[in-house]
Amino acid sequence: MQSSKKRVFITGGAGYVGSSLVPYLLEKGYEVVVYDLYIYGDVIKPHPKLTEIKGDIRDKKNLIGSAKGCDAFIHLACISNDPSFDLDTVLGKSVNFDAFQNVVDAVKLNKVKRLIVASSTSQYGVKPLDMEVTEDAEAEPITDYAKYKIECEKFLLKANAGGADYVFARPATLAGYASRLRLDLSVNLLTIQALIARKIKIFGGNQMRPTLNIKDMIRFYEFLLEAPSEKIHRQAFNIAYSNYSIMQLAEMVKKVIADDKIEFEITPTNDPRSYHVSIRKIKEFLGFECAYPIEEAIQTLVDAYNKGLIQDGLNNPIYYNIKRMKEINLK
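-> structure tokens emitted (331 positions)
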């Protein structure tokens, strides 16, 4: 997409990633339009180049009208994570897959130049740990959340998006503080348990989790906004800092907090998800390098907690997608 600093439309812009991405892009000089249900509150500070629209991506007319005049479209909105999706599978499918047609139509009808779709590494399912899981690896989703991520990719590859460039970002599990904080993600959950309870609950421990600092995620989205079409069009990219076991992540949390009194409570798990993703493509094909280690993400959570920015971190529904969806009875 030629010429930078354009008008960017972001669905789910008031979510976990969006609440960090939006101010980052504004600071870089972009105009930003956020389209979100705001079920986690008004988390973005006003800005002269920011437009906020409360809307549902299932509302096709509103979505298409709201995206008018935008040069790029970043699609983040979805029912995130497996438990939240499974809470209401009909709702999950309607948002994560059925409404994707509306997204594609909004891009086509508004002649948007570039579409960036948030996909997921969870689509790979369970893979041998000695296998470097590249973007070409067979998708073997074991949850509906993961299944509809890959189905959206397949749909767009067949449907096309008018004249728009489009690209799929497949992030690892994210970590770190954001103004719309999630504490139902592995590193964030381990960290808040250690800070409040001084005990980290580890289910299994040997499962591998590709992990990513949220700061690198937002850097990568800007990179995709600026990348030449021939580098990214119709491509998918894994994005991760590194691959760690749950036990390694727990040890990392304990080391960053530097409290020998933190205990580990290990119990068996029936969660078989485990895979080791390759990040060679973003490095060699795009020249993108992650800059923020996971320890830094943990430290941002510790700092936020010490400043009183996290209230009742183990129980507050605002930090846990499934609790919040139940609380407001999202339909």
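The longest strand covers residues 165-171.
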